[in-house]
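SEQUENCE-TO-STRUCTURE ENTRY
===========================
Question of interest: how does this chain fold, as expressed in backbone structure tokens?
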Amino acid sequence: MTTSLDTPEEVRQAQAKALSQSSNWLDRATADGLTMSAQRFLREVSIRERFKFSWARLFKNYDVIVCPTALDVAFPHIEAPWSDRTLLIDNREIPYGYNVFFGARGIHGIAGDSFPGRSQP
């Protein structure tokens, strides 16, 4: 979990203002989170808890779910700030974060692992 609990309000506002101008949706989402009200935060937690309950129901009948970690095969490691990373997919440059599948383990607290299914020659 990322928190801005110890960050002064004026610092969070300045960070949010800068991030909200980004063309990257992850930066804009971070900006939104930096200024989120307690009421909205609790509403978001409630939504997350409903997802967790749904997953718990599913796992009463299944032991494992196999799903992609990303939308393409492995690519070279990129040494750059997250918001500056891009990938070339189908001859289009896209923000790195658009490719990553955050899925169940990131927002629902479900244990997960990632492994290569195949590699690009």
User: Anything to note?
Assistant: The longest strand covers residues 86-89. Residues 38-58 form the longest helix (21 residues). The mean pLDDT is 80.
